[in-house]
Amino acid sequence: MQDSIIEHIQKNEEQIIETAIARCKQFLPNNYKLSIGADIYIAFDGNRGSFQKNQMIVIDLMNKELLDTTLFHNVLTHELHHRLYSEWLNNNFFGKKKRRINKTQLLQKSMILEGIAQQYTISNYNSQAIELLNNKELMKEIYDEWILITRKINSSSFPKIASAKVYKNQFHKEILWLNKFCTKPIEEETVKYRPSVIYYISYHLYNTIYTKTGLTGLSYVIENPDQLLKEYNRIHTEDMLIPIIPDDIIIQWSNNLK
Q1: 15 Cβ partners below 8 Å, 6+ apart?
Q2: For residues 232 and 241, what is the distance between their CA atoms, to the nearest angstrom?
Q3: Do 197 and 148 share a structural domain?
Q4: Residues facing residue 200 across a β-bridge
């Protein structure tokens, strides 16, 4: 099976990249110019998973879902979108003042990138992970953790030390949530898609806006990421999985993007 997908990539390399770029454009700012490149590597690791760092994109074919060409295309588009949108964010928001971004900005940037890019790969989730993603009680716990993290770091006199302590505990939290909310034996794939602040909160923020307001509404927060939380609150209804977001979190979110 691995040989077949490698053969598929070798035979269709140019078309695969063109398709991924075309799909990325749908969720990129209108003023974005495709002027940067990316180095794409195929790996057989099985540990790290697929990821993007600066110009490098690594697609790990040891993960069994990537043996399916459709799912492979989804992951490639997801990682390529990170590369393209991250560059735009740096030019228009995080990198405007040419200073190193702090830990709360780092968390925020990760949420912005993942929330949009997951629109390409959420169909890759196994059914058990989808069930977790839509569990209202779990989402309330993750929401509370997100608010706690943000406030702790923001109120600390030493935000770098505070954020290091907070992030150190996140993996443990994720495993606790996994064990608490899985009603059946935990599948191997579910561990990969386990509950997390960055992935679960960000997906629902962007997907809710997309579902409620369509591509027009999603495009607005893609081009104006500082308005994401305010826009979420504007359309909020009681049936949503993420509660209304407090004013202090909205202010901090917006200030981090000035």
Answers
A1: none
A2: 12
A3: yes
A4: none
45-74 residue pLDDT tens: 655 567 666 666 666 666 665 567 788 888
- How many angstroms separate the CA atoms of 98 and 154, rounded? 21
Tokens of 54: 């600066």
Looking at the chain, how many residues does it have? 258
Helix, strand, or coil (residue 194): coil
pLDDT above 90 as % of the chain: 50
User: Which domain does 62 fall in, by range?
Assistant: 2-98
Dump pLDDT digits (tens) for 116-153.
999 999 998 999 999 999 999 999 999 999 999 888 87
Q: Are residues 86 and 128 in the same domain?
A: no
Please report the pLDDT score of residue 189 as a whole number. 86
- Tokens representing 175 are 């495993």
Question: Last residue of a domain, which of 33, 65, 98?
Answer: 98
Q: Which amino acid is at 73?
A: H
Q: In this structure, what DSSP letter does residue 225 have?
A: G
φ/ψ region of 212 (left if φ > 0, alpha if ψ in -120 to 50, else beta) reads: alpha
> Domain for residue 83, yes or no?
yes
* Residue scoring higher pLDDT (116 or 16): 116
Distance CA 170, CA 182 (A): 18
- Domain end, chosen from 49, 66, 98, is at 98
Q: Based on the domain organization, do 57 and 18 belong to the same domain?
A: yes
What does 38-104 look like in DSSP terms, one character per residue?
-EEEEE--SSS-SEEETTEEEEETTSGGGGSHHHHHHHHHHHHHHHHHHHHHIIIIITTT-----HH
- Banded pLDDT at 161 (limits 50, 70, 90): very low
